[in-house]
Write a structure and sequence with these properties.
By secondary structure, this protein is an alpha+beta fold. It has 7 helices and 4 strands. The protein has a 4-stranded antiparallel β-sheet with strand order 2-3-1-4. A hairpin with a 5-residue loop joins β2 and β3.
Length: about 190
């Protein structure tokens, strides 16, 4: 979990989850980081994002009425995180005719969480809903020096169209700037058990 304020390492997970359910921005600095928080259940993540959505709607209303306190609502980011949380998980099958992208990023351990957050955010805001997009799964090595984006597409044509989009190019450049190196490779699944 990425906290905004320093939190003792010994603080129980439930305490952080409960605090985030009440005021998400006191625990998380980005809605995408809720989705990538490995210490929370999917149900806890959904509850936190629902509260964040409610807070963002209230802030948007206040902003629209000229009463904003300086914070931006971030409703689009919250919605993207909610979409990503409910997104279909990858199904690996040699019988499927899907195109698989395995994008391996080498990164310093200090930047791994930032890269994961950027990939999660980009999946929700840039890739989800795009023609041919099926799923994306983000993996981080235990030592934090590699992040892998395992993405599935319906076909090469949809994948190629996605690559031509300026919004996608901007997202990819942002992720590449965080990483030390990037190696995208397209695969066919040959065997899965």
């Amino acid at each position: 979990m990425t906290e905004n304020k320093s939190t003792p390492a010994a603080t129980p997970r439930k305490t952080l989850a409960d605090a985030a359910k009440i005021s998400p921005t006191t625990v998380f600095n980005d809605p995408g980081k809720v989705v990538s928080a490995d210490r929370l259940t999917k149900k806890e993540k959904a509850a936190i994002l629902t509260q964040w959505e409610s807070d963002a709607i209230a802030l948007q209303t206040a902003t629209d009425e000229g009463m904003s306190g300086g914070s931006r609502p971030r409703l689009d980011e919250v919605k993207s995180a909610q979409t990503l949380l409910g997104a279909k998980a990858a199904t690996i099958s040699a019988a499927a005719s899907t195109l698989t992208l395995i994008n391996t990023f080498e990164v310093t351990a200090q930047k791994a969480d930032s890269l994961v957050a950027a990939l999660v955010e980009g999946t929700g805001q840039v890739m989800h809903g795009r023609p041919g997009f099926i799923s994306a799964s983000i993996h981080k090595s235990l030592d934090g020096t590699r992040v892998v984006n395992y993405a599935q597409w319906a076909n090469k044509t949809d994948f190629d169209h996605m690559l031509d989009d300026p919004l996608v190019k901007s997202h990819m450049a942002r992720c590449a700037a965080i990483a030390e190196s990037v190696e995208p490779v397209i695969y066919d699944v040959i065997f899965a058990e």
